[in-house]
Input
Amino acid sequence: MDQIRVDLDRVLASIDRNIFGGFAEHLGRCIYGGIYEPNSPLSDENGIRTDVFEALCRLRMPILRYPGGNFVSGYRWRDGVGPVEERPARAELAWNSVESNRFGTNEFVQFCRKLETEPFLVVNCGDGDMREARDWVEYCNGTQETALVKLRRQHGFDAPHNVKYWGIGNEVDGHWQIGAKTPEEYARAYLEFAKVMKWVDPTIKLTAAVTSDWDGDIVARAGLLVEQAGKLIDYLGIHWYVGNPTNDFEAYMAVSELLEDRLSAYEGLMRMLRLQHKLENPIAIGVDEWNVWYRKRSEAGDFSNTLEEIYNLEDALVVAIQLNAFIRHAASVRMANLAQVVNVIAPIFTNPNGLFLQTIFYPFELYSNTCGTTALDVFWKGDTFSTGNHIGVRTLDVAATLNEEKKQLALYVVNRSKTKALETAITLGDTGGFSGPVQVFEVNGPDIKSENSFDHPTTVGVSRTDLKVERKGYVHTFAPHSVTVLVSDLA
Ligand code: AHR
Output
């Protein structure tokens, strides 16, 4: 029998709810036809798709990154404010489309406020300049009698938007980026952008775009950036996308090992750099784009540029594995943004008549709604699997959180066996005891390749049962290829 033991005193770190953030880009049908579809009977008076809005509410994302992505490196924010009929359509080079600019800053901030999510705006550090960036901060957050503040008021927004989170550039380390930058160029640009943006509003939190090309000059980039601008960095932004291009289930499930490597390496690197440069301010990791993405990419032979990935059950498991990694690394990962939210590599998929929820929607929804305030260390013993260079990978991928206020323990378990149900003894350490039945939520489906669709929207979903427990423990059998969340009240 496998064993999971949780000791309520073995606290890893507090959890920042911003790890359940999202990302919306002007790309394919994420904004137009996803979030915003003015002439649809499904939309409200502001053109917001109410069905999409309701589905997004279920995900309880505390922060939403916008407007890109690669898109932002050619974006002019001024094109997207003011009377809609006067806004210019522009050739959009990142995704080879035409941007109408009907949806822009004010529509986005309004949408976020209604969704009760914090807007996170990324400024153009590709073909844009620092003047444009600081002007955007002033337009959004300014309170003085300046031309930009008057312009915002003229556009119907008297009160400042108070946008707290800003990013400087996107994936500047990638050759695919408009205005890609060498480590030296970006460190210099970041310093100057950040300086003036924080002069306009010293309360804003800034994310630097450090790593998206994991074959690139990762250490040199982070080193130069922290050396030159460390005091002005709140988050080091890293991106990753994972997938199963070789159709090898075990190798795909072992992605946890890669994530552990990446996060631990970054933690070590940041510790070293902060020591070296005697930095007193904390610098967190923001995984400001993450997800499964491998089918609809040009390297995979798909040049449609709409990124309409259809997810299956194994992808849902991998989304849960990524969330487990964020919980285990809660001390350093203080923000993460699922890329993206609708249609484009997303948990919600629309057509003009409605939507269906993709497989990956369910683990995200469950984690976001049950995650506690504190990450706990977990003892685990049991079945393992080996694949490629990875020997003895635990079959159950586990994380745990404590909600101090509700006195609730949430245990997150991914069973990565395709065939084997794993009977597991779950016990508490010396402190505390279980009280009342455990709520068991399980994401599963008939097969690892099961998908949802308009015709079969619930092939993969969540089942809910209650389990009777003893004060100090219980036994639960984790079904093959499942994500299980066990929520228990504590005495
Ligand atoms: O999310 C899709 C794209 O992935 C983003 O535009 C870019 O930042 C990343 O490469």
Observations:
- The chain has ten helices and 23 strands.
- Residues 25, 68-70, 170-171, 289, 339-340 surround alpha-L-arabinofuranose (CB under 6 Å).
- The chain has a mean pLDDT of 97.
